[in-house]
Sequence to fold (316 residues):
Amino acid sequence: MLTESEILRYSPHLLLDDLGESGQEKLKNSHVLIIGMGGLGSPAAMYLAAAGVGTLVIADFDHLEQSNLQRQIGYQTDDIGAPKVQLMKHRLLMINPQIRVRTVNTKMDESQLLLELMMVNLVLDCTDNMASRQMINAACVEARVPLIVGAAIRMEGQLMLFDHSQSDAACYHCLFANSDEQALNCSNSGVLGPVVGTIGTLQALEAIKYIVGLPSGIKNRLKLFDGKTLEWQTFKITKDAQCSVCGQKK
Amino acid sequence: MNITVNGSELEIAANSTVEALLKNLDKPLNGSALAVNENIIRRSQWAEYKLCDGDKISLFQAIAGG
Fold:
């Protein structure tokens, strides 16, 4: 049941045929883990907090740096030097005091991540490096937790959704196999704020749709966003039966 | 036969494999993915996957930033 205050706050959701009161209750009862509180995680976390996702677990081990502020819109100049998760928790509860926010301020290893996955319905990968992306993917495959992956550099973005609760789910490793290869990141390639913000925002949109039970157009798909032309390309990812991460999944 | 790679037209030998095409292109393949007609072709298939006339190849790199 929604409280009177929740009915007021979420009234624009309640007017949506696709969401309504039952969708809002699903949001309220959901637990979402967002890993990485940077340019993707900032808008993703703020939109999910505003939307009333009942429990957000936010993970990042970085402190805010001046060069983050060009794109990581959850933070302010006065915040430089403080742990990002502590700053973001405060920000999210300022947006919406009716939700719960828990922080993870360490670099998680696989066993810690698997413990966290036992307590959530959905994971957003908002990290900034390939090793973390491969580890998060493998853990989500093992724990059968759905994963929404976003990435951006320069003026390009990538977005994908793997519903690991389903046996037909492909995985990140089916697409990008090798984790020790150099991948492009914001520090070595640069990035424009609204490009990474667009992808983070769409991760939040897909998360809300997943939680309320709306079909996703990006399941087992890779979407490529070109920030110069605003064109999207869509590619189908077929589950690789030989994939060393998800191929043996029964 | 004629194919396109990231929108540019290219003539290659009939029955060329993905791997042969990539050797021709001489591009760095670190962290890359490849799609033929919007279907991702996994790397383990590149050596045997035969291209057809008119195929649209998309080649792109993994991006990790956020």
Remarks:
- Chain B has one domain: 2-61.
- The longest strand of chain B covers residues 56-61.
